[in-house]
Design brief:
The complex is a heterodimer of chains A (about 120) and B (about 120). The N and C termini of chain A lie far apart (about 40 Å). Chain A is mostly beta strands and about 120 residues long. Chain A contains no helices and 12 strands. Chain B is mainly beta and about 120 residues long. Chain B is about 0% helix and about 50% strand. Chain B contains no helices and 11 strands. In chain B, strand 7 and strand 8 form a beta hairpin. The chains are: A mainly beta (about 120), B mainly beta (about 120). The interface between A and B is medium-sized, with 25 and 24 residues.
Chain lengths: ~120, ~120
């Protein structure tokens, strides 16, 4: 079974500082990895995904994520945080190849609340 | 705006009742997913349809059912409601289902907040 861990329920960062939201995963075979953001009273919005290729993936709103296969991690980063980045961030994983029922369905972490302090 | 619409936005009902949540996918998207978001369980995949046919099932209770109609809109039916069913229910759509070597972005609707009293 595939799983995602977001070890921090909340991350606080000062505006202008770099931010990191952590994600580790477990999946059979190679992973497809995703980050989504949820603003209050809104649905999830896609930020970026890793399928294959360069371990550093660039996405929307200046976010990027680094895939580390040996550490089974896919941490979300941004060089300079904005107050408007404050939201709930979800990491998700699925397997690249079929390994049983549910293989292709996204499994989400419990989310990390990011607060950017002015 | 993702282009996915969900109605109603809010729903308050009593235990034992039945409700129907509706989702219209983005124009051109054939695949619809239903998710449940609760404080204790997080975001859980319930069920997926593709072009009118059930594609995959997740942690969906037997009291819950869904369907996708010929115009591609989908409905999630929740019956014999319990207090624990109170949650945000999201619908997402993508142009096609996930597959081997293929991944499509899922676009989420704004959700339906269900409160069971």
């Amino acid at each position: 079974a595939q799983s995602v861990a977001q070890p921090e329920d909340q991350v606080n960062v000062a505006e202008g500082n770099p931010l990191t939201v952590k994600c580790t995963y477990s999946v059979s075979g190679n992973p497809y990895l995703f980050w989504y953001v949820q603003y209050p009273n809104r649905g999830l919005q896609f930020l970026l995904k890793y399928i294959t290729g360069d371990n550093l993936v660039k996405g929307s709103y200046g976010f990027e994520a680094e895939f580390n296969k040996s550490q089974t991690s896919f941490h979300l980063k941004k060089p300079s945080a904005l107050v408007s980045d404050s939201a709930l961030y979800f990491c998700a994983v699925r397997g690249a190849t079929y390994s049983g029922a549910g293989s292709y369905q996204l499994t989400f972490g419990k989310g990390t609340k990011l607060s950017v302090i002015p | 705006d993702s282009g996915v619409t969900q109605t109603p936005k809010h729903l308050i009902t009593a235990t034992g009742q039945r409700v129907t949540l509706r989702c219209s996918p983005r124009s051109g998207d054939l695949s619809v997913y239903w998710y449940q978001q609760s404080l204790d369980q997080g975001l859980q995949f319930l069920i997926q349809y593709y072009n009118g046919e059930e594609r995959a099932k997740g942690n969906i209770l037997e009291r819950f059912s869904a369907q996708q109609f010929p115009d591609l809109h989908s409905e999630l039916n929740l019956s014999s409601l319990e207090l624990g069913d109170s949650a945000l229910y999201f619908c997402a759509s993508s142009v096609a289902p996930e597959g081997q070597g293929i991944s499509y972005e899922q676009y989420f609707g704004p959700g339906t907040r269900l409160t069971v009293t």
